[in-house]
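Researcher: Next entry in the queue.
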Amino acid sequence: MQLDAAFLTPGARIYFVVKSKDAKGNTGKSDEKWVQLKGNTVSIKLVNKSGIPLAQVPVTLYSDPQTVTTSIKGEAVFTNVTVGKHIIVAKLRNNTEKTKEIEVADSVSTQLFTFEVSDSDSFNLLPFALLLLLLIIAAIVGVGIWKRKKHTKSTSHTVSTSSAKQ
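Model: Structure for this entry, 166 residues:
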């Protein structure tokens, strides 16, 4: 069998079944199999409105779904992507999903797309940072009070012992 390259789309999956017949007329048929053609590489950079990368966010590329979690740099890289329009879905930490349409060209270079989401959609660390700061302050104050009480008890014990000897 021969395939015409004009019908082969980079990144496409080709599904096939092998049918055979031996010299005695016995036939056989394989299960359905597929082969993935090498496609395009796409990099999605997920950032907030301030341009700060959003890390550890699952991003899904559709038509043939692939899900990748963004790196510390906010990047999700997809391989073997077909030419044409695709939908990108970012599942943000506040349980919302944001979508963007991209158009992938046939290219040997990695294609970069920036996906910007509003600050209200991205995970905000400020409340957690403030809570952590309050906990640290409370711990420091608590340790100071504990040490002061401990010092006061040991000083009063020493004074009462001295008074008893006179």
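Model: The longest strand covers residues 40-48.
Researcher: Noted, moving on.
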